[in-house]
Amino acid sequence: MQIQTVKNENIINAYRDGNRKGFEALYDAYYKDVFYFTLNLSGDAHGSLDITQTVFMKAFNEFNKKSVSDISNIKAWLFKIAVNEFYQIRRSYVTRIKYMVENLFRFIDRESEVHVEFIEKKILEEEKKDLGKWLLQIEEKDRAILILRYYDELSYAEISAILEIEEGTVMSRLFRAKEKLRRLMDDESK
Amino acid sequence: MNQNNDFDPKIKGVFLNVSARRQNIDIDNIKSMQFKAITAKGPFVAKVIWLAAIILIVCLAYQSSNVSGSGFNKAGISDISVFEEQSPYQPGENKSAQSPDFIFWLAVFLTEGLVLFYIIKFIDSIATSILSRISHDRFKTIHFIC
Predict the structure, then answer these.
(1) A131 → closest Cβ in B18, B132, B143
(2) pTM of the complete model beyond 0.80
(3) Does the ipTM exceed 0.85?
(4) What is the pLDDT of residues B71-117, one digit of tens each?
(5) A117-152 per-residue burial string, b: 16 or more CB within 10 A, e: under 16
(6) Rg, Å, chain B Cα set
(7) Most buried of A96, A99, A107, B86 (most Cβ within 10 A)?
(8) Do B14 and A185 touch (CB under 8 A)?
(9) Residue A130 to residue A147: CA distance in whole angstroms
(10) How many beta carbons lie within 10 A of that of residue B42, not counting itself?
(11) A81 CB neighbour count, 10 Å cutoff
């Protein structure tokens, strides 16, 4: 936890400088966290790459605008953007169209498509075995809490800040998600 | 309540397994590619502008081809009143008939240029993709054409 705080402070300092290197430090430190968080949430490699890109694009744009001192926990801040983006895709037709346009251009840009296909194949091999399959059977809101708690090891307070819900709600939903996951695991082992 | 100790060991084990497996997946290539895209100043906006430009060019080309032709196309063939109300066409009366020709050819030129550019880019990507598969190091092959 202490290492995490130091890492966070260093990045905030670099971010405060307001140059490209500051963003690069942020990107390097949290890219995988954001990508795997959205992958756990959506179960779709293509979609999570899109969301990850959008999250960092927003972070990049905030660079010059937002006062960095407002951000105390960068990881939680990025996760909050990711969750909002994920739910927005589910709800908004405009966002869906935006991603459809992105995919249209991806057809032209074969180079990035090769990378995505490679990652998708790798992840499909690994993820469709157990957890990836089970997570998709848990309700979205409960799933997000389970992932944030068990995969990213965030505290209840951080989860509550990211999802903008009460800590008590976090605990009750986590309990429900764990029960569901246990049932799925038991069913599989029978 | 000590939050660090309230993990269910069985569930934690499953998450740890997945996390360990992911250490072996190399996503650095896509990571650096996305970084370039993000720092290249609003790639999505650029794409939308491109798309809007293409649509505009096509619309202009369509409109100018109609205007520069006879009055039948402009009014629509189903509109019978055009035969009754419009005065006979006189040369020199329709001033807009001259300028759209330039717009038409400009639109054709731009559209063809754009299409050609993407065709070359597409062929290049396919060639690169094939070459990279042969060379076993699929992510380090230099582009074939561009």
Answers:
(1) B18
(2) no
(3) no
(4) 444 444 444 554 455 555 555 555 555 555 777 777 777 777 777 77
(5) ebbbebbeebbeeebbebbbebeebbbbbbbbbbbb
(6) 29
(7) A99
(8) yes
(9) 14
(10) 13
(11) 19
